[in-house]
Design a protein that fits this description.
With about 130 residues, the chain is an all-alpha fold. Helices cover about 85% and strands about 0% of the residues. It contains six helices and no strands. Helix 1 crosses helix 2 (about 20-35), helix 1 packs across helix 4 (about 50-70) and helix 2 (about 20-35) packs across helix 4. It is elongated.
Length: about 130
């Protein structure tokens, strides 16, 4: 990944990529998801490097416009933050229950492991969403 600015557009592309034309979607996918350079994309698409740069600039403007109107990224970020807080509260409650009921240690341990695995999978999207 090139930088945090690109991470923002990767998130917006994930949310709104289907609204772009096929050509813009292809160029964004090669740039943001496959991490190809402008020159590599130009060579692959048979266009100039400037054309790729212009396509990305227009695509970024459209993605910003979609986000300004639809707020999907912002809503997703809020939902992820609430989910993270809820997971923390559940984890604390389970740990308190385990302290009070040692006979449930095995079952609670399995639940905590599932919760940890779930938050590990969702962590990347939560990190990404907070930067939109």
């Amino acid at each position: 990944m090139k930088d945090m600015h690109d991470l923002k557009y990767l998130q917006l592309f994930d949310a709104y990529g289907q609204l772009l034309t096929e050509h813009r979607r292809d160029v964004c996918e090669l740039y943001y998801q496959f991490d190809l350079s402008l020159g590599e994309i130009a060579e692959q698409k048979g266009v100039s490097r400037q054309s790729v740069s212009d396509t990305l600039a227009k695509s970024r403007a459209l993605l910003d416009e979609y986000e300004a109107k639809l707020h999907h990224g912002a809503l997703l970020g809020e939902a992820e933050a609430k989910l993270c807080a809820l997971r923390a509260r559940v984890r604390q409650a389970l740990e308190a229950m385990q302290a009070r009921h040692p006979e449930l240690t095995g079952e609670i341990g399995r639940i905590l492991a599932l919760l940890q695995a779930e938050s590990g999978q969702g962590g990347a999207s939560a990190d990404r969403s907070n930067n939109v």
